[in-house]
Design a protein that fits this description.
It contains eleven helices and no strands. It is mainly alpha-helical and 205 residues long. Helix 1 crosses helix 2, helix 4 runs antiparallel to helix 5 and helix 7 runs antiparallel to helix 8. The longest helix has 20 residues. The radius of gyration is 21 Å and the shape is elongated.
Length: 205
């Protein structure tokens, strides 16, 4: 009947009811549309509540699709509310949906390396706002174990360490990047900045 707000409210109240394929599909669609409408209206608390409910429905019925778009929108809704740790956890959950093998760029619904990198950067920023850069460090150390040759991951770990006031550890990570790729421009810039901060101006130059 065109009453999306009431449909979303009903879907939200149905969370404790038994699951079925058709019911879950309808609830997921309604909650997702309701969350998007709430976000467009600037009601971020309601957008987050509906997106979180949709996430729970999807978790119980994985055949309905990837949770990635929901997690992305949920993270943004938490950021707008300045619920920084919740936002970081939503970004982390989104990162866990990344395929283990690199998908073809043209494959529908797949994110680019740049988009995954931006998601990781949001984790750092959210934990920084929450006063918990130490948690960002843990996230990236785990990611590097899975992809030890990913120099961008190592660079982001260095940024997290710097945000956590761990300059020596950050310098070690940057030195490791430069040992692998001596012409890595971003690593060189960060190393120069660290030399500058320590007063080694000739080395920085």
């Amino acid at each position: 009947a065109g009453d999306l707000a009431e449909a979303a409210a009903l879907a939200l109240r149905s969370a404790s009811l038994p699951s079925s394929a058709a019911f879950d599909e309808l609830r997921l669609l309604t909650l997702d549309r309701g969350a998007r409408a709430a976000a467009e209206a600037g009601d971020w608390a309601r957008a987050a509540a509906l997106a979180e409910a949709a996430r729970q429905v999807l978790a119980a019925s994985a055949k309905l699709g990837s949770p990635r778009p929901l997690l992305h929108n949920l993270a943004l809704a938490y950021e707008w509310q300045e619920r920084w740790e919740d936002a970081a956890e939503a970004w982390r959950a989104m990162l866990r949906t990344r395929p283990r093998q690199k998908a073809k760029a043209a494959e529908p619904g797949q994110l680019s390396e740049q988009q995954w990198s931006l998601a990781r950067a949001r984790i750092i920023e959210c934990y920084k706002h929450a006063g918990r850069p130490d948690l960002a460090v843990a996230v990236f150390r785990q990611a590097i174990k899975e992809a030890p040759n990913d120099l961008e991951l190592r660079l982001q770990l260095a940024d997290a360490l710097l945000a956590n006031q761990q300059q020596r550890a950050a310098a070690n990570v940057i030195d490791r990047i430069l040992a692998i790729d001596a012409k890595h421009a971003d690593a060189l810039l960060r190393r120069a900045a660290l030399y500058d901060a320590d007063g080694y101006l000739a080395m920085s130059e």
